[in-house]
Amino acid sequence: MSHLKLFAATLKRHGFKLLENQDIARRAFLHGQRYASSGTSESVLSGSNSNYVEEMYCAWLENPESVHKVSLKLDCNADSEPAAAGALRPELPGVTNFSFCLTFSVISSCSALLLFQIRGHHVAQLDPLGILDADLDSFIPSDLITTIDKLGFYGLHESDLDKVFQLPTTTFIGGNENSLSLREIIKRLEHTYCQHIGLEFMFINDVEQCQWIRQKFETPGVMKFSNDDKRTLLARLVRSMRFEDFLARKWSSEKRFGLEGCEVMIPALKTIIDKSSEMGIEYVIMGMPHRGRLNVLANVIRKELEQIFCQFDPKLEAADEGSGDVKYHLGMYHERINRKTNKKITLSLMANPSHLEAVVPVVQGKTKAEQFYRGDTAGKKVMSILLHGDAAFAGQGVVYETFHLSDLPSYTTNGTIHVVVNNQIGFTTDPRMARSSPYPTDVARVVNAPIFHVNADDPEAVMYVCSVAAEWRNTFNKDVVVDLVCYRRRGHNEMDEPMFTQPLMYKQIHKQVPVLKKYADKLIADGTVTLQEFEEEIAKYDKICEEAYTRSKDNKILHIKHWLDSPWPGFFNPDGEPKSMSCPPTGISEELLTHIGNVASSVPVEDFKIHSGLSRILKARAEMTENRLVDWALAEYMAFGSVLKEGIHVRLSGQDVERGTFSHRHHVLHDQDVDKRICVPMNHLWEQQAPYTVCNSSLSEYGVLGFELGFAMASPNALVCWEAQFGDFHNTAQCIIDQFISSGQAKWVRHNGIVLLLPHGMEGMGPEHSSARPERFLQMSNDDSDAYPEFTEHFEVSQLYDCNWIVILLPFRKPLIVLTPKSLLRHPEAKSSFDEMVSGTSFQRVIPENGPAAEEPHEVKRVILCTGKVYYDLVKERKNQDLEKQVAITRLEQISPFPFDLLKEELEKYPTADLVWCQEEHKNSGYYDYVRPRFRTIVNRTRPIWYVGREPAAAAATGNKNTHLVSLRRFLDTAFNLEAFEGKTF
Fold first, then answer.
1. What region holds the Transketolase-like pyrimidine-binding domain (predicted)?
2. Distance CA 391, CA 388 (A)
């Protein structure tokens, strides 16, 4: 932006009108801005603080005397070069009352304000132990006035401290006073910025937001609490600390990852929830690591204590499936009345593995879904709270990935409150060895989130900061970070010895007075409570714990349903079982297929100019619809469209999904003449249809897949799909797949219908974009290769219900992994007829041979079993070698769970034929290791199943086209060499 435009924008933003002397003032303003960035002298008006220049200028416009002169006279000719540091310039007419508050030889009230606002947090007293610096740096900035003996640095004398300065509009330290002495200014600034609260906010490039924070913290007397508030805070601290003490007494040798050293976190969270409830929030979704989880469940979510205590009894078994994880990983969902506001509040704490921060995008996705289904576009009813450890917050990349979703239209949750439990240590690693940034919270600066550091041994400061954080989120719909600088009284867990690696820190911790005693002594001393009242509060909660402990001995009490974090009311029977075990046909009428095809090949918006290349694609779709044919892209359109008609929301997310990586989808059309004008034909299918959300994501897999997983948890009546740009990209989201998708139901009874679309196919394009690594998903499938199933009436559905991930429209939800095509998107043979999709049809788990070989099965010498793209290579080669009567080719469309029933029937057709499994993937990849033992189980190990494909290799594919074609030729020759396996044993 040019100087003139910047000046005009500044005036407009602050509502000023043009004045006669404003041209001269403008030149001085611009000159000061250039001077600040010239590097000729130390300046407080550089870098991310340039917005302060605007504030100074606006303050001068309102009152020229509020911005004080410095000994340096500035050349206000906007066309001249900045003056050298310390050089005197002749005064210009009309500008004698205007100068900028640069730190050269004199400090004024303005520069003092700026120094403390920007850098005061560096000297704030944040560490409860008094031995570490929260920013890892013991150096005190020399330009912060904290003692009189430093005045000489600025050319000041002690007498200057009593000079009175007019306060600018960029501060609230004066309260009702307009001027203060420099001594009082510094005193008040120190009180605000250098005590138990350290504020980082001056990097925010929004004047209104900076002013809001200043007002909340600088205004004298803002941090005052009534006696009732103090008593409530004390009672919450009692519950937090006595809960940990009770567990320590009853189960001294059990890990529980207690909260000792940061007991203030419980009243902190309750303050955030109270304040948010007061402002209209009805649903709070939380994610956190294991430290303090049981305490949060007990004292924030208000889970029954007996349900928590019985988890410590190793003899108890869950009354139904689940509970496959440790107690400090489990989640919870609870509706209750908030006692502070008398409003109903729903709280959900998401289950989470030991993989720190993995739950962060999951919480955000679930929050977005709950907002979406409530029509809460501004996030005024549903919000998220995320708790972090200091080491993980700084070290885990998924934190950064998720922060960058915070302002994207299809991913924003309208602000999240992040609470960092800053132990000032990782497991055993000193923070100076664990991060390169001053604070663990610096990652939040990338989205202009204010960061409030606070000493966790000052409960009232913590409560005030948390209240302000809740107001910030509600006011600006932006993220905010509360950094609870605390300590960890025990080791990483209760069995760990921290003195091995942190002897000095833990010597201090052993002497540290607990925060509850400190605060109780303070309240007793000032008469807020009596010692008797304090002791009665402790006795009352201890009695609650003892009574719950007695009830926990009932071995009928433990039901995993009490630990569900995402219940789906009405979807299952009361006993948790599906309402039906049947699988109805999924086909739709030809009329609907034709209608969807016609919309997919049109532009349902008037005066909308599309790209000429897209016109050809739409024309091809129309021709296919007329000929009753579909390719992959059109079939996907019809699948989504039919679900939308049933009122089920469809959400497709991932990198470049709107167009499709391979330019095949084009679900979002762009007007070629009007910027940002788009059309989504899928949302124009019917007047009463569910919404279709298709959104390009940030260049993230871990964060975005976690987000979509969380979105899919919110409701069973949604089809949520994540598409990888290429199938192998899922490996950077492997944590989400391993910890949540594959095992989520077994660990936490967490049903989920997330769909992963993974482009897969070997085309000689190199190892990175060929294989979606199907062997990894198959290895994690839970069906038994050696167990021959009993074919019951509803075998197909019951088999799907028992496995851990699968397929299609069912009365329950399982994750689905789909290996989607690349070259087959335009393969002339890769098309299907409407006949395979009309009413009465269903998904085909196995597509048997239906050519000449099937007419005389006893004459068939070889049955080739395969899946995916290689089928088209095999069919072409079979025709070239004129072996259509001697070789049958059968396709597996569903690999896991393995279709034992249909394959048994198919293999029995060809009793004398060789059985061959053919795949294009290398032998140590793909499907062979999974299907081989299951085929042998079908034939009772009486017939061999031979492998045909590429040899084992470390890389997933070659990048040399010739090598690719040679290896393809080799295994096709083997597949159709009918004597290849004669005489060999198995």
1. 630-827
2. 9
Residue 350 in any domain: the answer is yes
Q: Is 332 in contact with 567 (CB distance < 8 Å)?
A: no
pTM of the shown model: 0.86
Residue 338 lies in a domain: yes
- Looking up tokens 């960029």 gives 170
**pLDDT-based confidence at residue 749 (cuts at 50, 70, 90):** confident
**In the prediction, which pLDDT does 4 show?**
42
Judge if 178 and 236 occupy the same domain. Answer: no
Q: Measured in Å, how far apart are the chain's first and last C-alpha atoms?
A: 76
Q: Are 172 and 215 in contact (CB under 8 A)?
A: yes
Show the domain range for 308. 227-404+502-563
Q: Who's near 426: CB < 8 A, 6+ residues apart?
A: 389, 390, 391, 392, 395, 434
Check whether residue 814 and residue 868 sit in a common domain: no
Are residues 814 and 884 located together in one domain of the fold? no
Buried b (16+ CB within 10 A) or exposed e, 314-353: eebebeeebbebebbbbbbbbeeebebbeeebebbbbbbb
SS3 call for 2: coil
152 & 262 share domain = no
Distance of CA 43 to the CA centre of its chain: 39
**Model confidence pLDDT, tens digit, residues 368-427:** 999 999 999 999 999 999 999 999 999 999 999 999 999 999 999 999 999 999 999 998
Contacts of 155 (CB under 8 A, 6+ apart): 105, 106
Sign of CA dihedral 83, 86, 90, 91: positive
HSE of 879 in the Cβ direction (CA atoms, 13 Å)? Answer: 6
Per the domain annotation, does 215 fall within a domain? no
- Split into its structural domains, the chain has a count of 4
